């Protein structure tokens, strides 16, 4: 979905009573981009939305394998050449892979054992969303997760305002947890809906 569409959700919904909803002011827009970026990182971290794979041939004398993707957040799992999941960070297990850093895996297993030969490491990792800096950017997120994201952004925005504007941060934090629980229980794909319908629900389309 377009960032502009997400901003419409926020301006006419959770943030309608805040001055930050005036996106004609660049200072407000910059703050909203910051909150959206933080929200995407939070939801992604909770639900594992963006995963990629990096493959490495296990080479003799090489024990450390760095992942070059600058958007990597953490390693989720590792598989061998046969698709068998390898233990992760298990001391004393010869087949275990270790995450020495958030973007590096280490393997010192029994590669010389013919019955336990590991020749390839397929590393599945969680990656961050591209940074949002413009209204015309696309966000690779399911419509079914909009409520999760907007409530977290609202929590951040309401928590940042002066008390004179009133603060509903606690309310939106609670609602975020509820929507996050729904996404985990039912799966975010089950909550997908048309974005125009969502605006109609709020009375703005």
Please provide a written account of the structure.
With 205 residues, the protein is of the alpha+beta class. The chain folds into two domains: 3-48 and 131-202, no CATH class; 51-127, no CATH class. 35% of the residues lie in helices and 17% in strands. The protein contains five helices and six strands, in the order ααββββββααα. The chain has helices at 3-11, 26-47, 146-160, 169-186, 195-202; strands at residues 51-57, 64-66, 72-79, 97-101, 104-107, 120-127. A three-stranded antiparallel β-sheet has the order 1-6-3, with no helix packed on it. The protein is elongated, with a radius of gyration of 21 Å. It starts with a helix and ends with a helix.
Oligomeric description of these chains:
single chain
Rg from C-alpha positions? 21 Å
Are there runs of 5+ residues with pLDDT below 50, and where? 189-205
Strand order of the largest sheet: 1-6-3
Count helical runs: 5
Strand content bin: 15-25%
Distance between the termini: 16 Å
**How many β-strand runs?**
6
Helix and strand succession? HHEEEEEEHHH
Inertia-based shape: elongated
Structural class, please? alpha+beta
Overall domain count: 2
Question: Which helices and strands, and how do they pair?
Answer:
Blueprint: H1 3-11, H2 26-47, E1 51-57, E2 64-66, E3 72-79, E4 97-101, E5 104-107, E6 120-127, H3 146-160, H4 169-186, H5 195-202
Antiparallel strand pairs: 1-6, 2-5, 3-6, 4-5
């Amino acid at each position: 979905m377009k960032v502009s569409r997400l901003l419409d959700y926020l301006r006419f919904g959770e943030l309608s009573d805040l001055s930050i909803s005036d996106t004609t002011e660049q200072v407000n827009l910059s703050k909203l981009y910051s909150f959206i970026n933080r929200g995407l990182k939070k939801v992604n971290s909770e639900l594992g939305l963006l995963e990629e794979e990096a493959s490495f041939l296990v080479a003799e004398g090489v024990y450390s394998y760095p992942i070059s993707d600058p958007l990597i957040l953490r390693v989720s799992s590792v598989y061998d050449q046969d698709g068998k999941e390898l233990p992760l960070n298990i001391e004393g297990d010869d087949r275990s892979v270790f995450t020495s850093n958030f973007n590096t895996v280490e393997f010192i297993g029994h590669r010389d054992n013919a019955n336990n030969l590991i020749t390839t490491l397929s590393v599945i990792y969680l990656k961050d969303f591209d940074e949002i800096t413009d209204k015309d950017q696309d966000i690779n997120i399911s419509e079914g997760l909009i409520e999760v994201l907007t409530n977290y952004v609202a929590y951040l925005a309401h928590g940042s305002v002066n008390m004179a504007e009133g603060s509903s941060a606690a309310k939106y934090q609670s609602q975020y947890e509820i929507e996050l629980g729904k996404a985990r229980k039912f799966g975010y794909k089950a909550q997908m809906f048309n974005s125009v319908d969502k605006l109609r629900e709020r009375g703005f389309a």
